[in-house]
Amino acid sequence: MRRAGAIAAMAIAACIAAAGVCAAAAPDADSAAHADAAARRAARADADLAKEGWCIDSVRVSGADEPGFRAVRASARMAVPASSVWGVLSGSVRSEHETWPGIKESILESVSGDTITKRYVVAVPVFKDRRYRLKTVCNASVMQAVFWSVPGYGNVRGIHGSWTVTALADSLTRVDYAAHIDPGMKLVPGFIVSWATKRAVPRLFGYIHDRAAHRTPTN
Predict the structure, then answer these.
(1) In 3-state terms, what secondary structure has residue 16?
(2) CA–CA separation, 88 vs 207, rounded Å?
(3) What would the pLDDT profile of 143-198 be if each residue is shown by its tens digit?
(4) Nearest CA-CA partner of 177 in 154, 200, 157
């Protein structure tokens, strides 16, 4: 059962990556019952940031208002300049062939100013490849990429969301992601998809950090 969930999460994660988002994650409940747990999570995140150069502050997966969709929200910090992170996200969307994990094929269809339209094929074990078309608008002035699926192509029911990059300091950046996703995959319980997605999304943030760090000049 977990394998099925992991496979479904791979499809969701690859769809996330291809989109190349976002409202900030909702804060934890401000209560005594959660204060200690929140403090421990924050301490672990700070330790990861110091050791690895990036950390996950939150990942939340829940039901969405749209039947069949899952709402994904995640936030991370990276010890690299915001311009480098934005360069990875916006540059990937505009590139002819993307190399995000799980993407089998990406075809650049059109570029009109800040609006990019691409077709994607995501390889998913056991299930059929996921196919979809995305339109993405990259707003460099606020370092935000907003994306949504275009009906009429593929077997993914729908995707829409955003990446948002925020400079916290010269070499410290917050990256927020939010999306509603229905990969069109039946027979996989929602709680299993949630379980696996929470493990897949951090790998995408790690991938973004590694590419952003590679783009950042060192003295």
Answers:
(1) helix
(2) 10
(3) 999 999 999 899 888 999 999 999 999 999 999 999 988 877 765 666 666 666 67
(4) 200
Classify 5 as helix, strand or coil. helix
Rounded-to-integer distance, Cα 18 and Cα 134, Å = 9
> E strands of 24-157, at which residues?
54-63, 70-78, 103-112, 115-122, 130-139, 144-149
* Domains of the chain: residue spans and CATH: 2-215 (3.30.530.20)
Nearest of 73, 63, 71, 77 to residue 23 by alpha carbon: 73
- φ, ψ of residue 36 to 5 degrees: the values are -65, -45
- Bridge-based pairing of strands 70-78 and 172-182 is antiparallel
The kind and range of the H/E element at 169 are: strand 158-169
Rounded Cα distance, 13 and 5, in Å: 12
pTM: 0.79
